Amino acid sequence: MEPAARKKRILSAIVESYVKTGEPVGSKTLISEAGLKVSSATVRNDMADLTERGYLVQPHTSAGRVPTQRGYRFYVDNALTVKPVSEQGRMYISETLAQGADSPENVLQNAANLLTRLTDCIAFATTPNGEESRVRKISFVPTGAHSAMAVLIASNGVIKTKLFRCEFLITPEILTVFDNALNEVFAGVRLSAINRPFIQTAAAGFGDLSLLLPSALIAVKDASDLAREVSVYHSGLGLLAGDAQGDRILTFLQNRHDVAATLERLPLDTAVTIGRENSRVELAYSAVVSARYRIDNSPAGVLAVVGPLRMDYAKMLAVLDCAGSCVSELLNEMIDV
Amino acid sequence: MEPAARKKRILSAIVESYVKTGEPVGSKTLISEAGLKVSSATVRNDMADLTERGYLVQPHTSAGRVPTQRGYRFYVDNALTVKPVSEQGRMYISETLAQGADSPENVLQNAANLLTRLTDCIAFATTPNGEESRVRKISFVPTGAHSAMAVLIASNGVIKTKLFRCEFLITPEILTVFDNALNEVFAGVRLSAINRPFIQTAAAGFGDLSLLLPSALIAVKDASDLAREVSVYHSGLGLLAGDAQGDRILTFLQNRHDVAATLERLPLDTAVTIGRENSRVELAYSAVVSARYRIDNSPAGVLAVVGPLRMDYAKMLAVLDCAGSCVSELLNEMIDV
DNA sequence: GTTTAGCACTCTACAGTTGAGAGTGCTAAC
DNA sequence: GTTAGCACTCTCAACTGTAGAGTGCTAAAC
Predict the structure, then answer these.
(1) Residue ranges making up the domain that contains B301
(2) CB of A143 within 8 Å of any CB in chain B?
(3) If you average pLDDT over every residue of chain B, what do you get?
(4) Phi/psi of residue A306, nearest 5 degrees
(5) Is B159 close to A142, i.e. CB distance below 8 A?
(6) Which secondary-structure segment (H or E) carries B201?
(7) Does residue A120 sit in the same domain as residue A161?
(8) Do A124 and A244 belong to one domain?
(9) Above 70 in pLDDT, residue B336?
């Protein structure tokens, strides 16, 4: 075998052995496990070279080698063969996700729970980000003499409500007027366009009505903001107990908005993000495997698991890929009512 | 001083010193800190007695004493003077809770965040349990040709929505019929009474209509179930990093339903629950300080902090009591629209 | 030029030892 | 009932020695 090819094989074997055992891998272990036809001295030379080039490190002088983040990256990019989830596995995943799932939120929580169970990692699922979605319909529901609820239905299936109060008496007639007026203005508008200037311009266009509308307009804007907000479901907190990176990850979880933003920033495809490649320092020693689910065939929310660098990347990728496509299927069914 | 009174004083002093320093308290330290007018030998005799009666323990032969759970309990019941939060403190709490609080959920999340900040403990806030509350109003909003959304407004101010589909075409007229029919049946009914038998009986009473109603009825029941469900907001996960009980508490947090149930089971007043007094084993080495907030003057949800047994109980009680009443005020304002 | 055997070297992990310091329980006297 | 004095116990931290694992280097073999 060519020296170059052998080195690649040695690196893969070290990653795989280290992932399995957690022990630094020495030259002798490597020969017996990888079935190499060379002596330990040769392997040592190759390992020294790989160390020099930054793919491996030695915890201390007399220890075996451990992959660096660069080592894992090389392994994931060049030496990984992902075997898709079996047909039975896929059915199991699909059925588990659908269990008692009467809303998209439920499906996503199911997904996080399931991923934790299948991967033994903390898992996340985000709601679809609303950046691309538009207002499908606005309705009003009376809730009291001076209060009502605005209901916004977005094109990605998300429904948000917001209460508001008025000085004047709210009658069914007024709500009908609101309904007609606001649907005319908002229908088809992108959620991201609904900001203060937008509602001010809208209000100005209503003549007499504009005196009655402000609180309703603000309620619609608030509902739109809520619909754009990404919320995050997670599962597997308990796994952090005793985990080496547990403290860091807890710090990461502390701030909901950071978590949402970090997950949103993940690639649009199934992907592995290793250590410092992550946008948050708290994840500098963790690996994130993620997949997007799609709604109406465009990337929507993300499923992800966070675990140690030392993880079975092939398995994780297979599971996430499958879960992602199952979630897509389920949500698309639910939404196109 | 009477020996009995002195022992009580010694126990309190040990609790307070241990809470402050975290170090087992020896007889000499005790004399200098509690200003006792007896010798260390006398104190040692008293400590030996308190140890025998289960109020103190020695981590090892040559160490000072540490309070047992029984010791803490005695201290909390007999030696604690709670000084109410100052007027300024109260205003600060009240204002912080109200910040950007446009829904009860927001107020509760604010409360959890604030409690974490003030107490350096993980904090929880539960939504009002719906056991006592009744249906105030039901509305329907069309969302598509064959789908609509049921909106249930409960007497405790909670609003829940549920989508449903029908085989037949949904027109505004049909929804008006639904609206009238279902408000007649459900208005004033306790949420806990809305179960399968109830909706079956209800459906039976509608004659011809009953063919159209089932999915709407089920949607109302589902919304009612959602409204009864207690959800839990929490804050301070990051504090678990490096905490001695962190692992246990993470395990406790793992299951949302257990958390909700445990919190619901806490006393109706401001209270301290110490170690094994808690209903969950994971909290056997933690203390929970809790307060109920009230809606319409009856106990609704709970605010709680979970921390080490070794905590400043007086301060915690003061803060929780204050936060509880501030949340009550705020929510009552929001709800009686 | 590449590969190999052999050997000296380095480092860790673990177990055992030691001495200082803290705090106790007991006893005899007040 | 309280106190002084003293022997005793236990922890903690620092230090030591040893076994084991794995390396890097060198000189010889392919």
Answers:
(1) 87-129+230-335
(2) yes
(3) 92
(4) -120, 125
(5) no
(6) helix B196-204
(7) no
(8) yes
(9) no
Q: Does B241 touch chain A (CB under 8 A)?
A: yes
End of a domain among A12, A46, A78? A78
Shared domain for B108 and B47, answered yes or no, is: no
Domain check: are B116 and B237 in the same one?
A: yes
Contact list, A238 vs chain B (CB under 8 Å): 250-251, 253-254
Last-in-domain residue among A35, A53, A78: A78
- Which region among A106-115, B189-198, B209-218 has the lowest average model confidence (pLDDT)? B209-218
List protein-proximal bases of chain D (any atom < 7 A from a CB).
1-5, 8-11, 20-26
Strand C atom within 7 Å of A41 CB:
yes
- pLDDT, one tens digit per residue, over A159-204 is 888 888 888 899 888 888 889 989 998 999 999 999 999 988 888 8
Is A144 a residue whose pLDDT tops 90? no
Cα of B158 vs its chain's centroid, Å: 17
Q: What integer is the mean pLDDT of B287-312?
A: 95
Interchain CB distance below 8 Å, A151 and B153: no
Q: Which of B272, B274, B282 is nearest to B252 (CA)?
A: B282
What is the model's pTM?
0.90
Contact A238 B246 (CB under 8 A): no
Q: How far is B238 from chain A (nearest CA, A)?
A: 5
Residues A326 and A245 in one domain: yes
- Compare all CA atoms of chain A with the CA of B137 and give the residue at the minimum distance: A143
Closest nt to B37 (CA→C1')? D2
* Selected residues 270-299 of chain A with any CB under 8 Å from a CB in chain B: none
Residues sharing a CB contact under 8 Å with residue A217, sequence separation 6 or more, in sequence order:
A182, A199, A202, A203
Rounded CA separation A193/A210 (Å): 20
Q: How confident is the model at residue A1 (pLDDT cuts 50, 70, 90)?
A: low
**B195 phi-psi bin (left φ>0, alpha ψ -120 to 50, beta other):** beta
Minimum-distance residue to C11 (CA–C1'): A62
Fill in the amino acid letter for B39.
S
Q: Cβ(A77)–Cβ(A314) under 8 Å?
A: no
DSSP string, A285-328: TEEEEEEEEEETTEEEEEEEEEEESSS-HHHHHHHHHHHHHHHH
Burial B31-48 (b: 16+ CB within 10 A, else e): beebebeeebebbeebbe
